[in-house]
């Protein structure tokens, strides 16, 4: 019974640690908990936040050196938010369907046409 209680408590703590971290309210330790953000990057984020809070993801990307759209997408997938909003994931664009065209008939090459017609210039191999 005690083992089950400890297992449930451990699962709840693990689930709580994967919650969203808002960049405008996070501490350095919270930011370090995001995969890909180390002490140097969290210091840059906090220094820029001291100047003024981040308005949105484009503002965050523009102000923090070393963060682009790809990195922002990764941070968002790890639980980082700006004002409670995750980074918008671009939906993959579906390729336009190709028009249905009948396939061109395959014409035999000249050398194949000669052998098929019974080319007599080539001696038969024994």
From TrEMBL:
Coiled-coil segments: none
Chain intervals with Polar residues compositional bias: 117-126
Keyword terms of this UniProt record: Signal
Keyword check for Signal: yes
UniProt keyword Transmembrane helix, yes or no: no
Pfam families: HHH_3 (PF12836)
Protein name per the record: Competence protein ComEA
Leader sequence segment: 1-19
Region of interest (Disordered), ranges: 96-126
Organism encoding this protein: Xylophilus ampelinus
């Amino acid at each position: 019974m005690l083992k089950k209680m400890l297992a449930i408590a451990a699962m709840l703590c693990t689930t709580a640690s994967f919650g969203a971290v808002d960049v405008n309210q996070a501490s350095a330790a919270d930011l370090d908990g995001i995969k890909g953000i180390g002490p140097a990057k969290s210091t840059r984020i906090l220094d820029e936040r001291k100047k003024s809070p981040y308005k949105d993801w484009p503002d965050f990307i523009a102000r923090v050196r070393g963060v682009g759209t790809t990195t922002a997408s990764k941070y968002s997938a790890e639980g980082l938010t700006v004002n409670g909003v995750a980074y918008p994931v671009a939906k993959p664009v579906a390729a336009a369907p190709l028009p249905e065209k009948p396939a061109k008939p395959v014409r035999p090459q000249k050398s194949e046409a000669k052998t098929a017609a019974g080319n007599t210039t080539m001696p038969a191999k024994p």
